[in-house]
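User: Show me an example of a complex going from sequences to structure tokens.

Assistant: Sure. Here are the input components:
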Amino acid sequence: MARIKTDKNISRKDVIVTKAASLFREKGFKAASMRDLAEAVGVEAASLYNHIKSKTELLHELCFSVANRFLQKIDEVEAEKIPSIEKIEKLLRFHINEMIHHYEEVYVSDREWKHLADPYLSNFQNQRRIYRKRFAAIIESGIRNNEVKKIDAPTAVLIMLHAISGIESWHRSTQKISAAELEENMVTILVGGLTQ
Amino acid sequence: MARIKTDKNISRKDVIVTKAASLFREKGFKAASMRDLAEAVGVEAASLYNHIKSKTELLHELCFSVANRFLQKIDEVEAEKIPSIEKIEKLLRFHINEMIHHYEEVYVSDREWKHLADPYLSNFQNQRRIYRKRFAAIIESGIRNNEVKKIDAPTAVLIMLHAISGIESWHRSTQKISAAELEENMVTILVGGLTQ
DNA sequence: TTTTTTGGCTAACACGTGTTAGCAGTATAT
DNA sequence: ATATACTGCTAACACGTGTTAGCCAAAAAA
């Protein structure tokens, strides 16, 4: 009988959620089956249900744990007393690092949230919309202070967030530049595109 | 008996492919069923098979028709005798307009190609890789000519392509700026991020 | 050691999937 | 008008899905 291996402080459920993130990223939520997941965990499909309620629960957990981290960060950044352009750069760097170091989760949250079921779906979409508005507001205040070009703020947000999701390609590429280089290049281009 | 309606020069297959694009975009390839598609077309599921070979054939057609348009465009742009930065801007504007006016197809090609089956899958990935290399080469020549900042070209490509796929959010948003404004804003930020 | 809880297993379910076979109207060409 | 090619239908298939029930061994608690 093959038990799920756990270290201290990592529940078996956490192991499942982590493997699920990896699988959902690779195949997509719908295409990844519970039998696939079971195999990845080293157990029979039915056994998973000793630890989780449903397949969608896995998606909830992934999506909201990511969303919460971003909301917490924007709370923190908004409260700081620094120029808007620095706030933007801070958020940007946070996004980049999340995408680099929590790749699978962030990617899944970004691409697979469509498959959430209500009420989680509406909830998630709301949080997302609000987050983007708050980000846009920072940019607009940067425009008012002449720190940022006169551009459409929602469009700028859209560009930045999606550009960062391109780190997916970096992860998959064989000849990677270092994470630090990647971060600097992205900041150079994106902040450079806003300022002056 | 409810026939599929067609105008002149539009085959019933084209009608199906178009509806498929819309459905795959909305639900994702795996989650969109042939019965969904049939309903959208106004027919029973089995009837679709008088016009198409399989569900994946629909995905092939969508992915490769988009890919071919982009390859054709980069052929054209590479051949022009203009500064690299202008080539970049031309490609950028082409991408933006494709995403604006052939939204569903381009989106599906971008997000759902994972579900292609070999040999189409390898083929598509190859074309994609080659396209990005050619794009990166243009940027690199721009760097050599001091038209473009010293940045990592593959990273710049990744940013630009993914930023453009963010037009998805524009399509879904209720308060849209005009397509022309969107284009100018994107070019301003992205080209601005590369130059100087 | 004994008892209880935890976590695995097999078997099975109800259902949704893509697809095929065979048939019958309908449009098109002769 | 007759023949032929289209294009729709119903019925059915084989299979993969998420999930539950019921059972038993192993770990944890007593």
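The lines above are the inputs; the final block is the predicted structure for all four components together. Residues 83 and 107 of chain B are 30 Å apart (CA to CA).
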